[in-house]
Each structure stands twice: as structure tokens, then as C-alpha cells.
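Input record (one chain):
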Amino acid sequence: MVALEESIPASVTVDEPFTSSRLCKIEEVEGHMLQLPQVDVPLTHLFAPGVYAREVVMPTDSFVIGHQHKTEHLNIILTGRATVMMEGVIHEITAPAIIKSNENVRKILYIHEEMRWVTIHPTHETDVEKLEEMLVVKSDTYLNHQAAKEIEALQTHLLTK
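The corresponding structure, as predicted from the sequence alone:
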């Protein structure tokens, strides 16, 4: 496997330092993207003693915005190729690669070739809902979108009765 720094010949740096305003800009982009048709990117949850892994397969030609992670963790890219913005730096990532992510980072990805991405977190917790609370921050934009979808589903259910 190749470490991120070794797999990237050149990076483009965004001139703004990593701040909460950058997270607000990502959330603004997220709001626009949530209005578009969504692709299905199911998570697979894997557990070993003291280790939790989340695997996702992201389809070719999709944009993906990850949730903000609360902890430092490892990412293992098994297959695929993507352009990824992390902490204001744009990278081209080609599998295989291993990347260390810092805490409070959100990633925006454009998937050029279907990508299998695994995040590895040290924990003894095995309850997926508790892990979500422990590991990620879901943006207000995402939470509001999910709430609107739930209300819409409830209205549809009530109207079909």
C-alpha cells in the first residue's frame, strides 16, 4: 500500500486556513448537493477486538461529502481513484493508499473510479448508533434535510392510508 504523501505528485492548497468558516462553506455546498438526486452509499460495519471499521463503496462520477469526524483515524483506500479536498488541500488519491485523518476534518470527494474506502477507529463500542454519536458530527444542513425527508415520508404514509 502507498501512503498518501507518496501517492500524490502535487497538491493544490486553498489559500484560507482551516477554520469554522471553511466548515460553513462546506455545509453551504452540502445544502446545494442535497437538493440533487442522491446516490446510495451504504456503510458496512466491521468489528474486531478494540477496532471498528466502516467501509463504503462510492460509485464512479459521484460527489461525496463526508461527515466531520471527531477523532483522528486511519483511512484505507482499497480500490478506485478520486479527487479529495481535506483541510483545504486538494489531492488526487489512487488506491491502494493509507491516509491519516486529523480530528474535525470533512472531506469532499469527486469519484473518478468506483472507490472502496474504509475508516478505522479504535474503540470497544459495537453499537452503531452510539458509534455515530461518538465519531461524527452531522451538520445542521444534513440533519434538517433528513428531518424533512422523514416528514415527507410520514405525510406520504398518512395520505396512502
